[in-house]
Write the structure tokens for this entry.
Amino acid sequence: MIDRRVPEAQTLFNSGFGAYLLTTSVYAANKKVARPLPWPSVFLVLPFVLSADTRKDLPTQAVHSMSAWLTEHPRHQAAYADRAVGLTEYTRASLRTAVRHNAIELTEMGLRCPRAPKKAAVVSGEEVADCAKRAGLIGRWLAVLEPALAYNLLGVRP
């Protein structure tokens, strides 16, 4: 079967790229709180990061909490649930890829990143670097939220 997606979609929905973004997010979360990220939280990362519209409105630093940002951006909160459902299988595939390549470890307490992911090279494109930067932000937000609260804030169910 021929993959007829445009090159940008092929890049964004490549499980290796998703694995890189999840690894970046898990690493940022682990660094923030020095404990594993609960595994349900990882399903909240890609719906934030892959939407160019949402990504451009995300802060560059975690100066606001997720709940404060969502209050200021209700249209993103309203669109989040549908996007999350649509990206569930892609997130699963990306997580499997990250685990298979030892970028993320599954522990009894959650997900752990054994080593820092490489920074996105400028050569790989500005959008890739922006996605990675925002994935780190989302990881820091999720590190301090119980998964049930994060899911509730975003209007989705695990």
User: Anything to note?
Assistant: Confidence is low (pLDDT under 50) at residues 1-10. The longest helix spans residues 15-33. The beta strands are 105-106, 111-112.
